[in-house]
Specification:
Blueprint: E1 3-7, H1 11-27, E2 30-36, H2 45-48, E3 58-59, H3 70-87, H4 93-97, H5 100-108, E4 112-114, E5 119-122, H6 127-140, E6 144-146, E7 151-155, E8 165-169, E9 174-177, E10 179-182, H7 185-188, E11 204-206, E12 210-212, H8 214-222, E13 227-236, E14 239-250, E15 254-256, H9 258-263, E16 272-276, H10 286-301, H11 307-311, H12 317-326, H13 340-348, E17 350-357, E18 365-367, E19 388-390, H14 404-425, H15 436-441, E20 450-451, E21 478-479, H16 501-512, H17 517-525
Parallel strand pairs: 1-2, 1-10, 2-6, 10-19
Antiparallel strand pairs: 2-21, 3-5, 4-5, 7-8, 8-9, 9-20, 11-18, 12-15, 12-17, 13-14, 13-16, 14-15, 16-17
């Protein structure tokens, strides 16, 4: 059997394994789908940490313009939508506008619900429910999951298509595959060497808190762990680079919160963060708002106001005290009309100077990786290395918070999984260990497709030993059950089910009871 090897058991890798197995089933093909995870204990650990343990799996308003390398992502999402519509045999507009990722999760049994800003979470409100359905579906489809397998190097097949991909692991073992999907994420992308010319660019942590300079930190230290809501602008040389509205969290080293995380994707040292505490009031209306507020409060109190009293109900006391100090005012000062411009500037434009990322451990993604220009947006397949696919964060794609990055992981995994299965089931995959004729001669060999690299050249005999599986049972096989069209009747031998004496006797008995051979073949694959 041919093998589809998936390196990485996170969101993208698990979805690729599921989608490859489903595509094989739909094609009526038999192949081995194996997933290798570096974690010594389990797959999907990274999924459990997303969304503060709740897993914000997608967004109700997915748009390609939210992503880095927008054109590539837009084409990829369009191809996925088209493949989904074709799979469902869709003619209705509802299906054409549906979210293929959510529909695939619904197929697996996951129910989702929508929260603010279109964020989609599992109904159970726990990331474990997302991982559970992925793991269960992969197991039911026969995916061979192996943990504690850290891939270091992927060798391309020899020129001319002879041989296969060799995956070299840290434990000195080697796996052979007709197609390889690299889904290692951003943290590990630079640690795996792919065939030339595929080179991983430097990975920079983004989508995290920002550190401010020493002067600005005097303010943020006073407000450590205080949360406010408003609009935060990122400015460079006085020009606005980006703007985010939402929560901001002051920290000793700088600022955090969703709005800051999103701005960190664009921030550079020396940029300014400008905090607008009253985002609902246009700048041109601020002075009138302040004077009207002062007049009403003085009328009620029957006397003059201090600055801290005037700001009560508008800002938290600690925030107003710190902000006043930044503009040279004190909380106990009497509020006069001459102070209005200063207060307006403070409320609409508290400035903090960016120094860099605050805490890399909190960053949700890594920017960089393998350049999208070397991959097909329709399949995530390397243009220069057919049969090799890269998905998820390992590609140079990132997006803001809100489910966008996980949506890309699921989507790219679906594209690559289906494309790898189509490549193998159509006979386009490279042949492992020699020519197609050699593969046909070995089709009845029941060895595992994974071996240590131990060939005896003097005898010309393959003496490679099987790599020990981490599971107690035999290595599982992903079968392509369901209907098989007549165009698949002439499938090459390397894609037919291998010889098995007990199955042959059983199939012979079935044929004697009647029915055509094609129908019986379909039953055998279920």
């Amino acid at each position: 059997m041919e093998t589809i090897a998936i390196i990485g058991g996170g969101a993208s890798g698990l979805m690729a394994a599921v989608e490859a197995s489903l595509a094989l089933r739909q094609a009526g093909a038999v192949a081995h789908v194996a997933l290798f995870e570096a974690d010594p204990e389990r797959v999907g650990r990274s999924i459990l940490a997303t969304g503060n343990g709740r897993c914000n799996i997608s967004n109700a308003c997915i748009s390609a313009d939210a992503y880095r390398n927008q054109v590539f992502v837009e084409q990829a999402l369009m191809h996925l939508q088209s493949a989904y519509a074709a799979e469902r045999d869709a003619t209705s507009m509802r299906t054409l506008e549906a979210n293929p990722v959510l529909d695939r999760f619904a197929d697996m049994g996951l129910v989702t619900r929508e929260e603010s800003e279109g964020r989609l979470y599992p109904m159970a409100n726990k990331a474990t429910s997302v991982l559970d359905v992925l793991r269960s579906t992969a197991a039911e489809l026969g995916v061979d999951v192996q943990t504690d397998k850290r891939a270091l190097h992927v060798d391309a097949p020899a020129p001319g298509g002879a041989g296969c991909f060799n995956i070299r692991f840290a434990d000195k073992t080697i796996a052979h595959a007709a197609a390889v999907i690299v889904a290692v994420g951003g943290r590990a992308a630079s640690g795996i060497q792919l065939p030339e010319p595929l080179a991983c660019s430097d990975m920079q942590p983004v989508l995290g808190p920002l550190r401010v300079d020493a002067q600005s930190a005097k303010l943020t230290r006073q407000l450590n762990n205080i949360r406010v809501r408003g609009t935060v602008r990122l400015e460079r040389g006085g020009q606005r680079v980006a703007s985010e509205r939402g929560e901001l969290l002051f920290r000793e080293y700088g600022v955090s919160g969703v709005s800051v995380f999103n701005l960190s994707r664009f921030a550079q040292p020396g940029d300014d963060l400008v905090v607008d505490f009253l985002a609902d009031i246009p700048p041109q209306d601020m002075e009138r708002f302040m004077m009207t507020r002062r007049k009403r409060m003085q009328k009620l109190l029957g006397g003059p106001l201090t600055l801290d009293r005037f700001l009560e109900g508008l800002l938290l006391p600690a925030v107003s005290a710190a902000a006043l100090r930044q503009v040279g005012l004190r909380t106990g000062d009497r509020f006069t009309q001459e102070m209005v411009p200063q207060l307006c500037d403070m409320l609409k434009g508290m400035r903090l100077t960016v120094e860099g990322i605050g805490d890399e451990r909190q960053c949700q993604v890594r920017r960089g990786g393998f350049p999208v220009e070397r991959f097909s947006p329709a399949t995530c397949e390397a243009l220069d290395v057919p049969g090799l696919f890269v998905t998820g964060e390992a590609l140079d794609v990132d997006a803001p918070c809100g489910g966008f990055n996980l949506h890309w992981a699921w989507s790219s995994g679906m594209l690559a999984g289906r494309a790898a299965a189509d490549r193998v089931s159509s006979g386009e995959g490279v042949e492992c260990d020699g020519s197609r004729e050699d593969a046909e001669k070995r089709s009845s060999n029941k060895r595992s497709p994974f071996y240590t690299d131990d060939v005896n050249p003097s005898s010309g005999r393959d003496s490679r030993l099987p790599v020990a599986s981490r599971s107690d049972g035999p290595q599982a096989t992903a079968h392509a059950g369901g209907s098989c069209s007549s165009s698949r009747a002439g499938k090459p031998h390397h894609l037919r089910r291998p010889h098995h004496p007990h199955r042959d006797e059983r199939d012979k008995s079935r044929n004697q009871r009647g029915g055509n051979a094609s129908r019986n073949a379909r039953h055998r694959n279920r």
